[in-house]
Specification:
Elements lengths: L1 E5 L3 H13 L3 E5 L2 H10 L4 E5 L7 H10 L6 E5 L4 H9 L4 E4 L4 H15 L7 E4 L2 E4 L4 E4 L2 E3 L3 H12 L7 H7 L11 H14 L7 E4 L3 E4 L3
Parallel strand pairs: 1-2, 1-3, 3-4, 4-5
Antiparallel strand pairs: 6-7, 7-8, 8-9, 10-11
Helix pairs in contact: 2-3, 6-8
Length: 224
């Protein structure tokens, strides 16, 4: 991970930088708030370790400026100002965590790791599975067991929505809004027709039925 340390005390800056480098991170440093803000605004970092009391531009101004510019990089604030109201002020300014000085490096490292884990985006879903029904969202293929199922674009969207809500009752209104992009009921049987066609394609010839009608409520895609 690429980290930025903004700390004016040389001993603390080198101590933290060396420790994080040994932990396998790439580290840039700045010794004042102005340079730190410039780096943070022009380089993409995975996390910033930010001293609060900095020359030229103080740490809270740095983090407020980043948040005002829609920069959401995780920020761990370091400070000798460790009273409750001071920590609260740092968090409300936009800091993600606050560590009072003096600190143990092991705690700082654990907080850094936790913030990185929290802010790493989940990998996008590329496949959906229910029992032996599989949907590949990239290749746009659907299989039931070893059988490849050919779906029309609207049928694919319908099945995708049902699979993303597997086990839940999906109402007619939900389908109109999310599959047909209607925000009103056109009073047609278009949903019934498409559900019937989809059921014939994914359930016909299989002992276990997956697409169920919930009378008076909607539909549910489920193993039972």
């Amino acid at each position: 991970m690429h980290l930025l340390i903004v700390e004016d005390d040389r001993d603390t800056r080198e101590f933290v930088a060396n420790g994080l480098k040994q932990a396998g991170h790439s580290v840039d440093v700045a010794d004042n708030g102005r340079d730190g803000l410039l780096l943070a605004s022009t380089v993409e970092f995975d996390l910033i370790v930010l001293d609060r009391m900095l020359p030229e531009v103080d740490g809270l101004t740095v983090v407020r400026t980043l948040r005002a510019s829609d920069n959401h990089v995780p920020v761990l604030i370091l400070s000798a100002l460790g009273e409750v109201d001071q920590r609260v002020e740092g968090l409300r300014a936009g800091g993600d965590d606050y560590l009072a000085k003096p600190f143990a490096f092991s705690e700082l490292e654990a907080r850094v790791d936790a913030l990185i884990r929290r802010h790493v985006p989940d990998a996008p879903t590329t496949t959906l599975t229910l029992a032996d029904l599989q949907m590949d969202l990239i290749a746009r293929h659907v299989k039931r067991g070893e059988r490849l199922i050919e779906l029309q674009p609207r049928e694919f969207r319908l099945l995708e929505y049902l699979m993303r809500h597997a086990g839940q009752v999906v109402t007619r209104t939900m389908l109109l809004e999310h599959v047909w992009d209607y925000h009103f009921d056109p009073q047609t049987n278009v949903i019934d027709v498409h559900v019937s066609r989809l059921r014939a394609k994914i359930d016909k010839g299989f002992e276990r039925q997956l697409l169920h009608t919930v009378r008076g409520a909607g539909y549910r895609l489920a193993v039972a």
